[in-house]
Design brief:
By secondary structure, the protein is α/β, with parallel strands linked by helices. Helix content is 42%, strand content 16%. It folds into 3 domains: 2-95, no CATH class; 104-114 and 374-477, Aspartate Aminotransferase, domain 1; 122-366, Type I PLP-dependent aspartate aminotransferase-like (Major domain) (Aspartate Aminotransferase, domain 2, 3-Layer(aba) Sandwich), CATH 3.40.640. It has a 7-stranded mixed β-sheet, with helices on both faces. A 5-stranded mixed β-sheet has the order 2-12-13-16-15. The longest helix is centred in the N-terminal third of the chain and has 21 residues, at 75-95. The radius of gyration is 27 Å and the shape is elongated. Belongs to the SelA family.
Amino acid sequence: MRNSKLRLLPPVNEVIAELAKTDACNGYELSAITWAVRKALEKARKILLDDLNQDGEELNSGKTKKLQNFLHCQPEEFVPVFRAWLYKEIRAELRGYGSMKRVINATGVILHTNCGRALLAPEAAAYVAEQAVVYSNLELNLETGNRGSRYSHIEEILAELTGAEASLVVNNNAAAVLLIMNTFAVHKEVIVSRGELVEVGGSFRIPEVLKAGGAKLVEVGATNKTWLKDYQEAIGPETAMLLKVHTSNYRIQGFQHEVPVDELVVLGKESGIPVVVDLGSGSFLDGSEYGLPQEPTVQDTLKSGASLVSFSGDKLLGGPQAGIIIGKKELIDCLKKNQLTRALRVDKLVLAALIGTLRFYQRGEIGKIPVWNMLSHTKDDLRKDALKLSEMLAGLPGLEIQVMDAESCVGGGAFPTAVLPTYVCAVKPKQNSVVDLESFLRQGDVPILARIVKDAVVFDPRTLLPEDYQVIADRLREWNP
């Protein structure tokens, strides 16, 4: 019977022609649709031939049985049943096609690393779009007509906002640390507290970044306690710098001690050694004004006397991915001369996004920066938003809807112990598992990312955009277990 069904499988061009008569694949290029059709037909052939045991096992699972019911239907029913399966499979393949696309972040994690971290403000994004389609004076001195520096466009803004003598922007904060090591510490020693040898994500670790930059790591102190004398005793003729790394993504609490930057600076001056601070997700603002734990700001760290300070652009700053280095001009000038700088430099679009974001700080319009706007949401506002979504979902069959207290988090290696009170709209399926519902939402044409809390999928309005509510409601109307 399966072989007879094989003969009924349509050719690729026929399926593409049928899809063209519908809006099922609108927005996708022909090459992507062709790829998806071929993948779906190939999967159908494997199912019918049962030539892969693994596929056969998947076939019998409850999750895929419904989609693959064409296998057991009668020949006269095969074509309509198969076509329904085929179109669903093509759309599923297209959703997995290798390109970035919009997703809805309903997790409440503001700086969601998997979703691109900080959102750009519309005004900053418009400035990027403007610069993308025209020529610019990126490296042109308009007064002299000679070649200029791409960094000149941002140095004055960073100097105004931070008080730094000079600055440099590279493609992320790990690159900033790498460049600093490669410029000042090749084959020399860099002293770091053991409690600050962090893993920054994706298995990339500070010791490995230092090693890649050519530096020799000297660990001092213990995991939970490091004292000034630990640094003093480690300083030798090969010491290039004292490095302090802000533990952005975790905290040691209780029986602990770390040496403040200003104390390290005094020691550095006595020994003639620069002090470099990796602030990680550095902030220009005091988070305590938003109910967050107090953290050292970029400005305060520089005022403490650090020779160089590096931090990310796409975390608490609220801009694009970038590694920003500020500090003493003579040191920044050395960094600019390093041959690695060209390999690590940012392009005009990153600079435009960064400039567009920093302008809000210049004008004091912090509320227009999405990260800080989301951080500033009050619990009352979040309750209203959660109720709004619950009202849009009221009466949907197969679902129980409830608004309840919950917690959001900042994410992105920032304020790891902070608890942000929120309200969420909790959706519990009456049939099927909550895992099935979460997967269904994630695999829509516009993927919706939500959290599972106990026996419900929860939507946190803290990270929802105004247009997201209707998309969520429309997708849940399609839920048909």
